[in-house]
Amino acid sequence: MPVIDADSHVVETERTWTFMPDEQEEYRPAVLARKSGRTRASEYWLIDDRVFAKNANIGQDTPEAAREAADIAKRVAHMDELGVDVHVLYPSLFLRPLTKRVEVDAALCRSYNRWLASIWRQAPERLRWVVIPPMGDREKALEEIHFGKEHGACGVFVRAFEDDQRISDPYFFPLYAAAQALNLPVCIHASTGNFDHFELFFTDSGFSTFKLSVVGTFHDLLLKRVPAKFPDLRWAFIEVSAQWLPYVMNDLSLRFGKRGEPFLSEAALKENRMYVACQTSDDLDLILERVGEENIVIGTDYGHNDTASELHALRKLGQGGAIGAATANKILWENPKRLYGL
What we know:
Elements: E1 4-9, E2 30-33, E3 43-47, E4 50-53, H1 64-67, H2 72-82, E5 86-90, H3 102-122, E6 127-131, H4 138-150, E7 153-158, E8 161-162, E9 165-166, H5 173-181, E10 186-189, H6 195-200, H7 207-223, H8 226-229, E11 235-238, H9 245-258, H10 268-271, E12 274-278, H11 284-291, E13 296-298, H12 313-318, H13 325-340
Parallel strand pairs: 1-5, 5-6, 6-7, 7-10, 10-11, 11-12, 12-13
Antiparallel strand pairs: 2-3, 3-4, 8-9
Helix pairs in contact: 3-4, 4-5, 7-9
């Protein structure tokens, strides 16, 4: 059974920023090392006078050279060992806001995207990736989306919030139109792009910071019928499990009913081309009964170490079990293949 890992990661290193041109040298992140005391990490990124823990959520069950994409042969060999045909690569550092300056954000995104393009070129059939547009500058964002399409990207990375805007805001519609025209899905990974939201929940487990913001975004997009405005655009909701789907669908049906509007139907995910990444700990029988089996995918969170990380999740699901081999094949291969246009 062929397998696509719909959510794997690369961990940014100093190599990530070597693609910045000389004129952007002042924007290049620096590494700070801890000299003494107890802190969250031994090293930190210094980005535009803000400090972020470096490698604070790293899964030790993956080779360092593989998760940092320093040795592509080692990464591919580990994929073979795990029985995975394709990794779809998401960032690590960019799951949170990094700067309020548009020019700095554009420089960071540009360098990251060229780093990922260089990784893809070394294993184009095995390693695909999601391009990061600098959302504060639509012109440069469009440039990066087109660059990504030309260099192996299979999705557009979007955070649950972008600065002080929800992603249902019409400001982003030109970017969605471009993604639709290029056959690239909009991929909302567990994340937040709003500093106030990030700092309010900074000390929590990441549940309120990164997970619930994506669930709320899913609800917001459907309530405002944004997917209907882009009838060929696919949407992905990654690393937030799928256990919440029955609750959100029920809530939406009640809200549409009070407005005197028909709900989107039981096939809302399929009709709106929305895909959600599940976890093996989810009640898959309940989820599949409620939303169907055409729009559920799964990832391992390769390279990270949190509640979504399960390196052998795909192998476990591939064994079929209660959901059956045919359904497992859809979740492991057919659905992510359709989502990412592979």
